[in-house]
Amino acid sequence: MTPRPAPDLPPISARYSINILENTAHEVLLLKRAPTARLAPNQWGFPAGHREDGETPEQCAARELREEIGADHRVRPVRVIGPIRDTLYGGIYEIHLFHQHWLDGTVTLNHEHTSYAWVGKERFRDYDVMNGIDEDILYLGIWPREYLRKEKLPR
To answer: Which of 149, 53, 48, 147 is nearest to 99 (CA)?
Structure first.
């Protein structure tokens, strides 16, 4: 039997690295996007951003943490998932998820965010999060499905 060629996939619009930081209380760090943000203004999300030319997913993840929460922190890698293809927000994206354990430090926000919160599974639904956040938490197995918004999860 002759193998069939893989179907043509649409080209990737952008590549992103997303940091999901979890502390010892099993809370995740959410950042509230500025009202002037092009994508999802005033919604909560993770420290993340697009990969620059020649940058690895790991380099991008580390750079985005420094840019969005400052350099005064220590984290320990837990798990990486990716690449994942995603079509949220009207494009075709390649995403790497970086689950990291927060060891210590301080959060110093840049101009992209107005607030931050360490959020546990019991309070998670109180936050207006960006599309994809519930899915990221589920993919990484951080919290059970019942704490997430079923309408924001894949069927």
So the answer is: 48
Return the domain boundaries, the chain: 14-149
CA distance 138 to 132: 10
Using the Cα atoms of residue 42, residue 44, residue 45 and residue 47 in order, give the sign of their dihedral.
Answer: positive
Q: Which of 102, 112, 134 is nearest to 31 (CA)?
A: 112
Instruction: Output the pTM of the full model.
Output: 0.90
What gap in Å lies between CA 129 and CA 145, rounded to an integer? Answer: 16
Give the CATH fold of the 14-149 domain: Nucleoside Triphosphate Pyrophosphohydrolase (3.90.79)
Question: What amino acid is encoded at 58 in this protein?
Answer: E
pLDDT at 5: 57
